[in-house]
Each structure stands twice: as C-alpha cells, then as structure tokens.
Amino acid sequence: MHFLYPMCCFNSLLNLTCQNQNNYIQDHLKSALFDAFCLTADVFNRPLCSLISLFFHFFSSFQMQFMLLFSRQGKLRLQKWYVPLSDKEKKKITRELVQTVLARKPKMCSFLEWRDLKIVYKRYASLYFCCAIEDQDNELITLEIIHRYVELLDKYFGSVCELDIIFNFEKAYFILDEFLLGGEAQETSKKNVLKAIEQADLLQENIDFQMRLFAAPS
Amino acid sequence: MALKIVKGSIDRMFDKNLQDLVRGIRNHKEDEAKYISTCIDEIKQELKQDNIAVKANAVCKLTYLQMLGYDVSWAAFNIVEVMSSSKFTYKLQRIGYLAASQCFHESTDVIMLTTNQIRKDLSSPNQYDTGVALTGLSCFVTPDLARDLANDIMTLMSHTKPYIRKKAVLIMYKVFLKYPESLRPAFPRLKEKLEDPDPVQSAAVNVICELARRNPKNYLSLAPLFFKLMTSSTNNWVLIKIIKLFGALTPLEPRLGKKLIEPLTNLIHTSAMSLLYECVNTVIAVLISLSSGMPNHSASIQLCVQKLRILIEDSDQNKYLGLLAMSKILKTHPKSVQSHKDLILQCLDDKDESIRLRALDLLYGMVSKKNLMEIVKKLMLHVDKAEGTTYRDELLTKIIDICSQSNYQYITNFEYISILVELTRLEGTRHGHLIASQMLDVAIRVKAIRVFAVAQMATLLDNAHLLTGNMQRNGICEVLYAAAWICGEFSHLENPMQTLEAMLRPKVATLPGHIQAVYVQNAAKLFATILKSQEGNTDSTAAQDTSQLMIDRLPLFVQSANLEVQERQASCILQLVKYIQKLQQKDVEVAEEVNALFAGELNPVAPKAQKKVPVPELDLDAWINEPPSESESEDEQPKAIFAKEEPKHSRPRHTEVDEKELARQRREARKQEQANNPFYIKASPSSQKVYQDAPGVEHIPVVQIDLSVPLKVPNALPSDDDDKDPNDPHKALDIDLDPLADSEKLPVRSHRAAEAAKSPAEDGETENATSLEPKKKSSKEKREKKKEKDRDRKKSKEEKKKKKHKHEEKEEDLLGGQADEPAVQSEETSEVAAPPTSTSAEVSDLDFWLSNAPVPSNTQDSEPDEPKDAEMEETKSSKHKKKKQKKEKEEKEKKKKKKHHHHHHHSDGGGEESVQNGTVEEEEPLPPMSNYCLLAENSYIKMVYDIQGNLQDGSQVVVSVIFENKCDSFLKSMEFNVLDSLNSKLQRPEGSGPHDGLTVPFQLPPVSNEARFVFTVQSIVMPQKLKGTLTFIVKNEDSSTHEKLDFKLHFTCTSYLITTPCYDAFAKLLESGDLKGSSVRLEGVNMPFHHLLARICFHHHFSVERIDSCASMYSRSIQGHHVCLLVKTSGQTVSIDAKCDEPTLLGNVLDEIKQTFSQC
C-alpha cells in the first residue's frame, strides 16, 4: 500500500495531463511526471501531493465545487458540478466519494477531508446529500445549504421521497438552480425560491396549454 | 400535411418519456446495460425527427442517462437545437439549458454555436427566459462566451427585476474568471450592487468576497464599506461572507485587525453556530496576523476557546469543527488550549474516528513534561481498545510523535522504553520500523538507559516467537532488528548465554534477511563478550561450550538465501569461531583479541557536530577536467591522423560554412517537397494550400497583432518574469480596480474597421501566415481564430521541442520565442492604461478611516504606515523592473530575430525596431534596420508606415501604420482616409461609400499602436503616391479639439515584391531567356558585402544565395513577376545585373535599390 500510493498519484497525474487542454499546465505536469519517475517512492510522495493540491486550487473557483445526491445503494440521483471537469474525472470523483461516504458509520460527523477538499454530507432517509467545499469555506453553512435544499424539495413535492427525485429529476435540478448559482447561494429566502419555481412552472404550463390550443385546429 | 402531423403525434404517443425510461431501467435490473443501449438507439431515432418536442424529450432522457454515467457527448448538437427552442416553449428551452449545463464542458465545441442564442435569451423580455439562460451559462461558460457576453451580462446587472440582477451579479464572477479584462470595467457597477436590497446585495457581497479572497490587496479600499455592512446587516449568510473577507484583508493591514476585534467578539455571541464558527475562525486569523504579545487580546482568545468548548460539547459535527478550530489556536496560544485537556481527552472516546484523530492532533501540541506520561498512558489504554488497524496505527505514531517531539524534550524517565516494548505487542501494525528506530535512537543517545534497555530487549528476543507469529506479513519483526543490535552492542546482560541461545534459534532463519544479518553479527559480538567473561573462570569448558553452540547453530545461516547473511556474516563468523575453538582447545587466551574485533563505543552525536567539520575548499563552478574541445579542434584531429586528406581540411572554416549552406538548402528543398506533397501531414492544415511557386511557409511575412484595446491576455503564454503561476485563474484577476477613466469600457468583441477591410494580416497572433485567407462570416471567423490559436500553440510547442533537439541549427525557426511577444506587449499596454496615481486618494481615505479606530497607542499607529509605503514603493519598483525586464527581453528577441529567416515586423515604438532578413551567415553584427518610414507628423501624432504585399491576392497590399501619440492628451475618433486613384483603392467595409474614412480601431494612449489598411492595386509596375488625411479628436481634461493631418502614401515597386526563396527553377528561369535584362552599378559602396545583401533583402524583399563575392537574389511580385538579381562586388563597386519579365517594374525596383544605397 505504501508504495502504491505514489503510483496512484502518478496515475491521476497522468490522467490530468492527458485531459488538460492548457499547454502550459501540461508542460508542467509532464515535467512533474518526469521528476516523479526520477525520484524514489518515498521522496516523491510529498511534492506530488502538493502538485495535486495545486491542481485543485486551479479548479476551484467558487465556494462549492460540486453537489451529489446518491442513494444508500450508491446510485447517483443528482449531480451538479460547479467546476469544469472532464466526464472521466467526474466519474472518478463520484465513484471514490460515494464509496468513502457510504463506508462511514451513521454516528460519524458530517465532515471529512478528502484530497484537498472538505466534504460535507448529510443523510436524509435513504438519500445522501454530499457537497465539496474548499479549505477555507464554512462547513456549517454548507450543511445549512444542504438542509435548505432538502426543505425546498420537501415543500415543492410535499414530503419528498427518493422516488420524487428520481422521476422528476429535472425539477430537482430546477429547484437547485434557483437556490444555488455557480456554487453560491443566490437566494436565502425559501419563499422566493419556491415562488420563482412556481411561476416558471406556471409559465411552462401556460405555454403548453397555448401550444395545445394552437395546435388543435391543424 | 395534416396527415404528417397526425402521424407525428401518433409517433409521439409511443415514445418513451423520462418516467417510462426510469421505470424501464428499474424493471431491468439484471440487464440494465442492454436495456439502456436499446433506449439510446431509440433516442437516436427520436433525435432525427423534426418535431422539436420529441427531440426535447430525447434530450431530457439523455440528461438522465448522462447522470448514470453514459457518454452523451455525441448529442451535443441536438442539445443546442433544443436550447434554441425558446420560440416554441419555455419548457423545452428549460430542458435544453439543463441538458447543456449537465453535459457541456469547456472543450465541447458546439458551445461556439450557442453565443447568439444565449444573447437573445438574455435579452428576452421574460425574466424566466433570461434566468434559465443565466443559470445554464453559469455551468458552461467558456472564455469565448465570457468575452462575447460580458457586456450583455453587465447590462443585466442593472435589470429592473432583482431576480435577474442577483443572477447576473453572481454569474459575473464566472465571467471574471474566464475573461479577466471584464473585471475592471464591471467593477464599479458591482460595487453599486452592494447598496441593493437583499438578494442582490448578498450576491454582490458573495462575488466581491470571492474576488477579494484571491487578491485581497486590491480590495483594501472597500474595507470601510464592508465594515458598515458588517455592523448593520442581520443576514447571517452575508455576515459570514464579510467576516471571511476581513479574514483575508487583515494580514495586509494590521490596523484593520484592531478595529475588527470588537465587532467580531460581539458577533460571536450569536446563536447561529455557522456564524459563530466563522467569527471564531476569523478572530483567530486576525490575532495570528496581529503581532503577538498584545496583552489585551488574551481576553478574545479566551472567549474563542470558551465558545469552541461549547461547540465541542455540542453535537458530533460541531465537535469536529471545534477541535479543528482549537488546533489553529493551539499554534499560537497553546496555554489557553491546555486548560481544556479533559475535554479533548474525552473526545478520544468518541465513536467517530475523524473526531478522535482531530483530538489526537491536538494532544500532540498540548503535552508538557508534567502531563506527558498521563496522556501517553491514556493513549495506551486507547491503543488496547482501538478497533481497526488504521486508527491504532495512527495512535501508535502519535504516541511516538508526542514522546519524541523536539528531541525527546518532555521525556524524563525510562518509561519510554517500556512503552515502546509494550507497543510491540500490537498485532499487525505497520510501524515496526518506526518503533525499532526509536529504540535504537534512545539506546544510543542515552547512556543511562542502556542497561534497562538491554534487559528489555533481551526479554523481547526471548519472546520473539510471540512477535513473529505471522511475521512476514507485518512489520513488527523489525523491532527484533533493534533488539538484537542493542543486545549485541551494549551487552550488559544478566544471562548472556540465554540471549545468545535465543539469537541462534532455528526459527530465526524465517526472519527477513536483513534482520538475520544483524542477528548473526550481534551473536558474534555477544559471543565475544561471553568469552571474555568466561575466560576469567578456571573452567574452560563453559567457553568451549559456547563456541560449540555457535558452531552448531551457524551453519543454519550459511544456507540462508540472503547473501549478506550467507557470505559476509555466517560463513565468515563460522570460520572465525572454528578457529577460536581450535585455539581454545590449545588453551590459548583469545578473548582479548576477539573483543578487539568489536572494539569502540558508539557515542551520540551533538546536533551541531556537523558544523565542526571544516568545509572543503572546492570550487564547484570550475572545470575539473579541461572543457570538451570545440568543433574546430575536432577538425584538426582527423587532419593529423589522416594526413592524406589534408587538402580537404585546408580551409576547415570555409567548408563548414558551405556545409551549413548546403544543409539549409536541403532543408529548404525538403520543406518545399513537403509543402507540395498532399499526403504529408503538416503542422498547420492551411499550409496544404499549394501556391503557384510553392514558397516555403517560412517566407511569408509574419505580422504582429495590434491590440485594439489595452488588455491583458488571460491565456497568453507565460512571460518569464512572472514567477507566479499564470494559469491560476485568480492571478489573472489581480487587476487594479481604481475608478475608470471615461475612455475605458468593457471591450466588446466587434469587427474592427481594419478587419472589415479583410486585412490578411489581421490575425497577427497567428505566426503562421499561411492561414491568412480572407474571412467572411463572423462565426466562421471566430471558430477559425480559435482553431488557429490552438494550432499555433501546438506549433509553437513543437518548435520549442525542436529547438531542444536541434540546438546546433542556427537557422532555427524561432516561433517559440515570438509567441511570448503578444503577452509582453499587452502587459505594457495595460500598464499604460492604468492611471497610476489614482490609488493614492483612496489609500489616504482608508488611512483616515483606520486612524479613527480606537488605537491603544500612537506609536503603533504610525508604525504600520511604513510597511505600507514600502509596499507601494515596492509595487512601483516592480513595475519598473517589469519594464526593464521587458526591454531586456525585447533585446533578446532582437538577437533571435537576427537569425530569423523572414520578415517580422514588430509594432513597437516609432520604428527603431531592428528587424533583418539575414539569410547570410553573420560575420559582423548588422546595423539596425527598419522598413517603417515616416508618413506624417505633427505636434500631436506621428505616423510611420510599411507596405507589404499580400500573397493570396495579387491585387492587394497591406499598409501597416503605427500611430504614436506625441502629446499628453487622449487622441480618439481617429479616421483614416485616402483619396483613391484609378489604380489604387483603399478597401472599405461593405456599405460605406468610396470617400468614407476608416475608423482607426483604437485610441491613444497607449503611446503607440498599429493599424492595418488594405489597398487594392491594379498595375504594380509603377510606383505611385496617394494623398490622404487623418482626422482625430484631441481630448484634454478641459477641452477637446478636432485636428487633421495630411499625408502622402508612397507605394514603391518594392512593396509589391514578396520574399520568395530562390528555388530550383531559378537557373532555368535565367536561361530560358524570357526575362528582360538590365543592370546598374553602385559606386563607392563602403559597407561589407553581407550588409549590402542584408539591406537589399530587408528593404526590397529579396532572398539570397551567396557565393563569395557574388550573390544571386530572387523575389517575386504579388502578381507573379520574377525578379532575379546577380550582385557582384569588387572593391567599392557593386554591380547588379537584373532580369525580370516586366522591364518597367525592374527599372523601378533598381532605381529604388539605388536610392536605398544613395541614402546611406
């Protein structure tokens, strides 16, 4: 395990190198990879980790990095990424995180440090709500955001359950988008969020209705 | 028609909607993958239909599948289609944007197509349309989108509806990250939003806080504003952000910290845990940044610790955070944390491992001499209780860390050894090695402990079987290494025979090799000690028994698989013991001699001992051997060896030059061949275009980008003088946010007038001029630009690589070097644009605000001013430095360019640029040359210009004009107009009349900038002059005047020539007799021949092949006339024989050449 760890770093570095579009970073990565090769396993543990952390700094833009909803069985129910990552990287992160969070015992606290991020999660019935934030960010307010979101879902669907989110996943997204924008809470009033959603829904129905009226004669 | 609609709706009835899909997936748990693949096939069918609703349904399903991890990137275009369905229904559009925000990322190329759609949606009268677009944009905004839409979003920041305003404000942050130039112009409006009512205000606070956290120093002036907000706001979300912001600002302005402590401590008494936590964190940060030793702050620390105690005693999650914050305080104020030891020890019993680990971290810093053993004993209890090896290992390392920290500072007695021994009882720990090294370390360091340690180790060796139960798997057997070594080295044993016996047990052979080696070696040491003690006795049998024991047991090790054990230790020692036994049998006293083998005691080394070792006098820079000889001496060597070949080497230098020339020609030929070969894959696709005479790619004039707006290119290649990571998006946002000058506004991406003129040189950024096709459609243009940029990057990278490999090639294409240039230049322009003095006012405001703070003493007030001034000075000097470095760099580039093969015009200053076309091998440095000549000048402005032919179009020439501001005022609304002649016409954008002027697409300052104008010409055989006027407005602080400057553009025949390499057909061309000849003699030319050639090459666009005092030169006009020159020199006379298929053109060119030399 001890010697595998740098290898993991190495692999993820390699992945990052392949995916990254930016030439400059790529060059840096390549040289880092090369350095990693040259050094012995023990020595390069540290610089590589810091390089990875540099990477995360590079991704990091706004408070929240991403939000995932998954079931107790590890099925992803909702994902929202506020940082640009490739699909491959997203999948990898999701897989790792779902495993880590599911492995935690129910009595454990809601925070964990993962890579260079802080993971804040909370379980509501059969669903895990999981957010990733940066080092300096406030865990408690993130927990509050999760709770707010659950409350919003609850108000909208009327005692929400997992199936509501599965079958109306687009609605769940719409609510999330009205509440958070780019990883930042845009509306602190629950009432306003719900009002916006309702009006948008109404608009949608209205236009649907009009469309149908309009389409009927033809 | 009706039938079709009916059919469509029937089709729709059978379509699966999302719910059906989800249900289907749930019903096909066993063969999910197969079911989904059939679904994807169906979706593909649906996407082919015309009905947009069907498509939207399909896209919706795809979004779901994307979440399940299926690749849907192939449907990107369909998503765009659905996105742009706003004219049908809001619902479909909403689905489209959702799909886009889930599936698109920066490298999705169809994003390019969405720009106009998004712009339309943003300006939709319906706020929800706009909202959907904004939300979507926040997920997939790219640098291109950010640049194109920045202005639209900025307008939305002042929308009538707060719903839109808040979204627009938040999304601006994403835009800033992708397009940092937008920050400066947008910032004032963003600041205004801080005054808005709630949702918008909190959005603005969010954005500014995020910006400020990354580059706090630019936002220091906002501190009073935020301070007011902090004391007045009741919204916890906003408060948390503001407090975080202050946490970032205080390290830069210590006075701020003092002012903050009071309101922060007031806020701490809140009931909201998240706010409390944030306050505590910030107070800690503030106190750390404040110089320590301020007595009155211990109260605040105490308060923090108390509040943290509440947190720790609270629910699990708060416990974790409390401990986390506590550890921050611990670093600076360990005393205040130590009083809560009880609480932290309690946390060790917590069910949550992460909390226990946090508590462990804290304990590390809390130990003292008094409580160390108490804590360690408590930890030992936990070790016994601990379940799960990871946590137990963590405990183990923490115990060792705690005990060994700062050279065993807190250890007062021998108990540590017992603890270590006790720790070895842990099964399955990975830290055997760590324990072993601790044992060795302690035993070697502390003499007093050795007896005790040896006794402990002996027991350990005796009970080795307990440790080695499953020894290969775990590392605990490593402690046996230490035990054996300590027993052997410090053999103060009560019962040495027993230990020796234990070390030679057959089971030892199953231990890892390196431990066996230590066993054998130390058995020998032990043997020596035993001999010594036994020889004193009269009974010699005991000693002989001991030898016999050794001889009996050692063969076991001789068979060991480990070489070290087998060779060096066992067989050697075995022989030694056998010899000793022989001697013993003869009753010879051997103990002394045997002991001499292991004489010498190890002493602990003082930490500073290294300093006592004198530093050897070594010059690491000096050559140890003679440096490797140069090529010339290598040439001489074969001369000496192969005497017969001497004639060949008689002029080594000359042949070398010739070889280089040959190599160049060969390379040229190869390039030509490659260019002509359609199957050869080139770096740049557009170079596939084969021109009539297939000129080498290198020979196309390269032009410099002219920046219409002073901007800092975000993704520009890194300049060397910037040691920060230029790719950090936040670094790019490090922008001075002083009040804007009225000329500044958000750069809008519009088509520049000069661009409209289809200037082939517009895309100066692309070094590769083969891609200079005239561009027609804007969208196409953008796409192409991007492609070109990418390609260019790739290319420059390739070039860099090449450079590494072919370092010896002098005529290396230096694209890599040039690529830095845009960055450098833009840096300069942005520097110029920022009014440097305006900061001072705000800074003094801030000073005033801060000095109003209740400050305990005056001395402390004045003190912090100094660092601030120093800082300002520093920034100033760094600016200077930057400039200096830039200059140096330019010089470097100049040097590079001397070796450069083709024209490269650098729009810098007023034309003192030295650019050369030197295919000639350099013998002496050439004087600087420039093709830019004066166009017109008055007290406001100076114009210099250069004319270049356009390769693609035989009837076009490009006039590059550099405008230089000579006064202190702003020059704006510059309009460039020329009175067309029948032969030459200025190209104007479509729709403008033949007498309209062209707007110069920039303002001055920056001091100078370059614009390009395209002219169409019909006949090129005659030089001609065009009259023109430049009108512009001079704007002072108090007035603005309209000014006018007349000029005459001189189109020389030379400007129609394009540097083309002498190609193979050159000789044939001359022989064919199609060309008309003419000749000219230049008298009294007293410059070196290569200077002369370089001049002709440079000013008249010729390529050259030189043979001694004779050179053949070639050029081609834009209309395909061949011009050949044969230049000969003898003394001060230079004769030029020239041939051309157009005698008039030739005559004029020769006249111009003559004039060039008459001028100098």
TrEMBL record, chain A:
| Annotated membrane topology | Peripheral membrane protein
AP complex mu/sigma subunit domain location: 63-203
Q: Please give the biological process terms from Gene Ontology that the record holds.
A: intracellular protein transport
Superkingdom field: Eukaryota
Q: Where in the cell is it found?
A: Cytoplasmic vesicle membrane; Golgi apparatus; Membrane, Clathrin-coated pit
Checking Pfam families in the record gives: Clat_adaptor_s (PF01217)
Q: Which GO terms describe its molecular function?
A: clathrin adaptor activity
- Mind telling me which InterPro entries this protein's record contains? AP1_sigma, AP_complex_ssu, AP_mu_sigma_su, Clathrin_sm-chain_CS, Longin-like_dom_sf
What are the protein's UniProt keywords? Coated pit, Cytoplasmic vesicle, Golgi apparatus, Membrane, Protein transport, Transport
A single GO CC term for this protein reads: clathrin-coated pit
What is stated as this protein's family in its record?
Answer: Belongs to the adaptor complexes small subunit family.
Quaternary organization: Adaptor protein complex 1 (AP-1) is a heterotetramer composed of two large adaptins (gamma-type subunit AP1G1 and beta-type subunit AP1B1), a medium adaptin (mu-type subunit AP1M1 or AP1M2) and a small adaptin (sigma-type subunit AP1S1 or AP1S2 or AP1S3). Binds to MUC1.
Q: What is the stated purpose of this protein?
A: Subunit of clathrin-associated adaptor protein complex 1 that plays a role in protein sorting in the late-Golgi/trans-Golgi network (TGN) and/or endosomes. The AP complexes mediate both the recruitment of clathrin to membranes and the recognition of sorting signals within the cytosolic tails of transmembrane cargo molecules.
Task: Identify this protein by name.
Answer: AP-1 complex subunit sigma-2
Q: The organism's lineage?
A: Eukaryota, Metazoa, Chordata, Craniata, Vertebrata
Automatic annotation (TrEMBL), chain B:
Localization recorded for this chain is: Endomembrane system
Q: How does it sit in the membrane?
A: Peripheral membrane protein
Where does the AP-3 complex subunit delta domain start and stop, copy by copy?
657-738
Q: Which SUPFAM superfamilies match?
A: ARM repeat
Bias category Basic residues: which stretches?
A: 777-786, 894-906
What the entry lists under InterPro entries is as follows: AP3_complex_dsu, AP3D_dom_metazoa, ARM-like, ARM-type_fold, Clathrin/coatomer_adapt-like_N, Mu_AP3
Q: Which GO BP terms sit in this record?
A: anterograde synaptic vesicle transport; Golgi to vacuole transport; negative regulation of autophagy; neurotransmitter receptor transport, postsynaptic endosome to lysosome; protein targeting to vacuole; regulation of melanocyte differentiation; synaptic vesicle budding from endosome; synaptic vesicle membrane organization
> Where are the residues of the annotated region Disordered?
623-692, 712-926
Top-level taxon: Eukaryota
Q: Where is the composition biased (Basic and acidic residues)?
A: 636-673, 742-755, 787-799, 865-877
Keyword annotations for this protein? Answer: Membrane, Protein transport, Repeat, Transport
> Where does it primarily localize?
membrane
Does the keyword field hold Ribosomal protein?
A: no
GO CC entries: AP-3 adaptor complex; axon cytoplasm; endosome membrane; presynaptic endosome; terminal bouton
Q: Which family does it belong to?
A: Belongs to the adaptor complexes large subunit family.
**PANTHER family per UniProt:** AP-3 COMPLEX SUBUNIT DELTA-1, DELTA ADAPTIN-RELATED
Q: What is this protein called?
A: Adaptor related protein complex 3 subunit delta 1
Q: Which organism is it from?
A: Acanthochromis polyacanthus
